[in-house]
Each structure stands twice: as structure tokens, then as C-alpha cells.
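Problem 12. The chain below contains 284 residues. Write out its predicted structure in C-alpha cell notation.
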Amino acid sequence: MNLSDKAMLVNLSISAWSGRKLDRKITGEVTAAHGADRDAGRWNKNLVLGSALDEVKQAAGCARTFHYFNSLPWADDGSRILTAALFLKYSEAIGKLERAFNEAVGRFVQGYSLVMEHARIALGDMFNEGDYPSESEVRSKFSFSVKFLPLPSGDDFRVDLSAGDVARIKADIEAQAQAATSAAMADLWGRLHGAVRAMADKLKDGDAIFRDSLVGNIKDLVDILPALNLTGDPALAAAVVEVKSRLACYSPDVLRNHEIERSQVAAAADEIARKMSGYCGGVL
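Solution.
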């Protein structure tokens, strides 16, 4: 199987101004007042008080949640695997999320002068106008970028080395790709197992109160997992079908209000989770 024909790498990078700054003067005063060493602590001021940055943080959080849910782990540099089956959906949705982020940033920048005035009152003697970037500078501290890259392949490696060295490097690249693919598939099994296990544990307790997301998470997973099944794992495909037919078909209200159905679904979820544990290293 040539993975580069079925998937690519995607890297989502979001940065935002923290609205915090180290106050060395206050830090020195606090440590001195308590007879503490200069390195005993740090005093960071909140330059932005209240909820002024909440909309920006929420938009960034939504984008990251979507990104991780619709992709698979690849490397420590932040790149993740995006299957070709999900490319159009991902591209359209992440574009909307980027616009939402930029619009939230725009509203924050538009009200930036009011943010400073609020801080001037709230911080009292700790307020220092020099702590605040200009309006144009603060806008540059927010960014949102998405990059798509091909999956690395040993066959693409070209360099002027001996045939033996080239073969060894190609083999290393392929081994790394195989290890990453195995980790990605384990991630899928872990996601499904975790949701099913949570349902089983919650429903077994007849008095436990649960949110609609207990069922909603299951439904979302069985909808997305077929497109994320990178290797076409038939066991995972079968598990998705079983979860969909035996667990995801019930509404939260039915499970809350009908003891028999709740008990049956709890037993089914427990059974399915136990079967899946063998595909999750036997430790989940």
C-alpha cells in the first residue's frame, strides 16, 4: 500500500497574544518582602483583564479540536495525517474556522484601546503603558496557518551518496512511516475504545447522570472513522459497524428513561469494549 496515494500531512499553527507580561519590579518587591531568593518566583501581570480575549481563545480551541478529531498523529513537529477522503471536508471547515478566528481577532483589535483603559483602572500602580504593543503590533501577534505536505517516501529520496547509504536511509524512512502508521491506527482504536468504555461504565451505574455527549461522541466517531481508516483495517471497520448498530442507534433520552434498554446497551458496550481491548495492546 502506497500511503502517499491515500493521505497527506497537514500542519495547523495558531498563535495568539497571551496578554501577560513579567513585572520584574513587583517580582522583586514580593520576594524582598518575604525574604525570598530572587529566583523564588515570578509575578506576571494580566495586561488583558476580563473576557476580552475569550472569543479569540474559543475560536482557536474550536479549530484545534476539529483539526485533531479529523486527523491522525504523525510526528513531534505538529504534522498530522489527513486522509484524501477527508481533504475537501477538512479544507472547507478549516477555512471557515480560520475566518472565525480572524474575525474574533479583528474585534479584539478594534476594542484594544478600551482594553487598555480597563487595565489602566484595574491594575492601578502596576499599569505601564509601555507593556502594551501598538495596535498594529498586537495584530501581528495573532496568526493562523494551515500547510499541506506530501507524506515522506523512501522512493522520493535523492542524494549523491553510495548505493548502500541511500538504501539504508530509504529503509529508515520507510520504517519511520510504518511506525507512524501503526501509531495512527492505534490512535483510532483508542478513540473508539475510550468512547465505548465510557458508555459502558456510565450506563452500568443506573443512578448515574450523563450528558447527551455520551451518545453524541459515539455517533461522531462512527461517522468519521471510516474516512480515517488509513490502512483499511477490516477489524476496525467491523467494530465501527457493530458500535453503530448496537450502541449509536439509541438516543440519550431512551437510555435515561428506559431501564431495560439502558441495561442492554451497557452490557453491549462492555462486551464490545472488551473485544476491542485486544486491538489496543490489551491494556485499555
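Discussion. Residues 159-277 form one domain. Students who got a different answer should revisit the alignment rule from Section 12.3.
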